[in-house]
């Protein structure tokens, strides 16, 4: 029998990888599309768990890096709004922190393309960072994504309101990111977009002050928190 003390112990919040794996397993997905795959980190993780991974990214260097990192997966240089795949090719598709990197004018076109390439009964998983939290506060001098993150959520809400998707799951949770020092945090930001490096160098003093003001102590060194919102969507019959 649980004691009051045991019940009071906070349980770890499932992080993104656990949530994605749960959804994909529940859907019995096999063929999975990683939209905005970058260097292939998500595809590598899911391929290791037995999923047949395909990734797309508009950046040629990112696709080359992903092919090298995950030789058993397929990667194509392409944009989300013009997917080079036949209708019904995938059991699931994932935008992991990627929808807000699609140009605002074609975000809903990207969502329509995703519906097209999903099988009947397939699932779209969208994970988007919100414009708040200590991680966001420290990164803002490098790139303030307030408006584009809001635009991604507006596009998603409009597509849902338009009757194109059934919302099966919608969660908001905190991603916990630990860094040994500010330099590791900057390296993380630059790995996502190398164009950030110059701004980070120029505003290092400001970043240092914000890092000290917002980071909390962790086992590794310092922790920053980024709230995320996750949608599991199934295409509406049409």
Automatic annotation (TrEMBL):
It comes from the Bacteria. GO terms for molecular function: methyltransferase activity. InterPro entries: Methyltransf_25 (IPR041698), SAM-dependent_MTases_sf (IPR029063). The keyword DNA-binding does not apply. Coiled coil: none annotated. Residues 32-122 form the Methyltransferase domain. The keyword Methyltransferase applies. CDD domains: AdoMet_MTases (cd02440). Pfam families: Methyltransf_25. Keywords: Methyltransferase, Transferase. GO terms for biological process: methylation. PANTHER family: TRANS-ACONITATE 2-METHYLTRANSFERASE, TRANS-ACONITATE 2-METHYLTRANSFERASE-RELATED. This is Pimeloyl-CoA biosynthesis protein BioC.
């Amino acid at each position: 029998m649980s004691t009051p003390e045991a019940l009071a112990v906070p349980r770890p919040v499932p992080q993104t990888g656990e949530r994605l794996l749960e959804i994909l397993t529940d859907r019995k997905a096999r063929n999975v599309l990683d939209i905005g795959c970058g260097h292939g980190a998500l595809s590598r993780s899911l391929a290791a768990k037995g999923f047949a991974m395909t990734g797309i990214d508009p950046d040629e260097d990112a696709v080359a890096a992903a092919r090298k990192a995950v030789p058993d997966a397929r990667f194509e240089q392409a944009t989300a709004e013009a997917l080079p795949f036949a209708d019904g090719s995938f059991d699931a598709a994932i935008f992991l922190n990627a929808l807000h990197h699609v140009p605002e004018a074609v975000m809903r076109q990207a969502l329509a393309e995703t519906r097209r390439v999903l099988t009947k009964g397939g699932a779209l998983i969208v994970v988007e960072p919100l414009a708040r939290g200590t991680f966001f506060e420290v990164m803002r001098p490098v790139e303030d994504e307030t408006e584009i993150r809001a635009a991604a959520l507006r596009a998603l809400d409009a597509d849902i309101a338009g009757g194109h998707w059934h919302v099966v799951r919608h969660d908001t949770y905190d991603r916990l990111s630990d860094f040994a020092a500010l330099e590791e945090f900057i390296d993380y930001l630059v790995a996502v977009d190398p164009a950030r490096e110059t701004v980070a160098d120029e505003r290092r003093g400001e970043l240092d002050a914000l890092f000290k003001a917002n980071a909390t102590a962790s086992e590794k060194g310092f922790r920053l928190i980024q709230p995320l919102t996750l949608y599991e969507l199934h295409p509406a019959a049409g």
